[in-house]
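Q: Predict the bound structure with zinc ion.
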Amino acid sequence: MDGLSPQAEWLALGAMAAVFGLFAAVELARPARAAPKGQRWVTNLALFAIDTLAVRLLVPLLMVGAAALAAKEGWGLFNQLALPDWLAILLAIIALDLALYLQHWATHRVPLLWRLHKVHHSDPAFDVTTAARFHPFEIVLSMGYKMAVVVALGLPVLGVFLFELVFNIATLFTHANFALPRALERPVRALLVTPTMHRIHHSAKEREANSNYGTLLSGWDRLFRTYTGEAEGKLTIGLGEYQDQRPHKLGWSLLLPFRK
Ligand SMILES: [Zn+2]
Ligand SMILES: [Zn+2]
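A: Predicted complex:
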């Protein structure tokens, strides 16, 4: 399989924008908790723009390009196996979701990585724009890691493309400032990470923040015993030391990893 057509990329981008708009509308209508907009939204969305630019300028190929290169050269595990396409695609999505669960765990456990990742956690509120709030260095590092996984496993182009689409939508969904209806929360969470589950990961309590690392499948947290089903007492979002307006500022957020 060769690379994908440029239309596919635009289609994915359009789908992402539509899903963002949908979740933003639902959370404006029925927010789970108060979330200030204004400067906070501008900063979170500006970080996303900077991240996108940085990763495009600094990293050649990106994930789909890495998959196409591995296919052409016959690199990686999957390119040695003759799996049916549907199975290779399904396994690629599951393998990448696991790889990102492990990466997320590491960003909380390795002090240097936590310096970058805590920009995401420093948001004192939680809504769909929190999904866009990452330090550009974390995004560039993460892209390098994901490409290494794609090449090492020789994952198929279509599987990688679909993973990125599904994973990005899951990232928007898990940060949405709404709760699923009670009757849906349990059955959905049996398979997928829900907003209510990921909101606990944004708790100011360390024990709760060091749990619920999953993004797409909820099973990894159960399997590796990092699952928290319910927040204990009142849930405070963000980091204890930054419960103020500072994280709303772009410059402050970009410099946060380099602060003592
Ligand atoms: Zn985290
Ligand atoms: Zn998050």
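A: The longest helix spans residues 85-109.
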